[in-house]
Design a protein that fits this description.
By secondary structure, the chain is mostly helical. It has 8 helices and 3 strands; from the N terminus they run H-H-H-H-E-E-E-H-H-H-H. Strands 1-2-3 form a 3-stranded antiparallel beta sheet, with helices on one face. A hairpin with a 2-residue loop joins strand 1 and strand 2. The longest helix has 30 residues.
Amino acid sequence: YRTYWLHIGDNFIYLLLPSFLLILILFSSNFGNLDLNIRPFLISLLFPISKIIFIPLSIIITPFSTFFTWLTLNTFGFFSTMNGQEIYYKSPGIDVTFSCSGSGQIIFCLSAMLILHICFPLNGRQLFMIQLSRAFLFTFSANIVRLFLLAIYSYTFDAEGFSIFRYLHGGDGGLFFSFFSMLLSCESYKRLY
């Protein structure tokens, strides 16, 4: 089933979980309990909505990720140049594309905060907006640090054996930054709760 789940060409798969949940809700004989099923149904809609907003958010976030990475590099003495969405440090450089902008992680983190708010609501809308802002800043900052390290170690891309660039760019090293931003966001939510 995993190959069908990750197949990008089939957009119906994104609506599979909400469709199953809606069918189960409609088949239940007790319509008085529909309000109990609203929260799980809203949570099931987060995955399709995240796929819809990924590209527009990436278009907005990519220039900011590029600029703040370039600014961070130059602030710490790693003098680099920026050309569009490319950052050059020494001879090699990095190209900050949609997948490198941090949009996917931002959407994931904000979705987690929304799920926490649905299950364990904060007292007031203002606190929830503060938490969403914190989660966004934690995730965006973690991605800037990741891009900063990728730019510094971009020369190891073609290295034989272990490459710090490929490690941080791939799944294992990139997950460290995702974990760190989620840890900070959840701790912030816990303190506001």
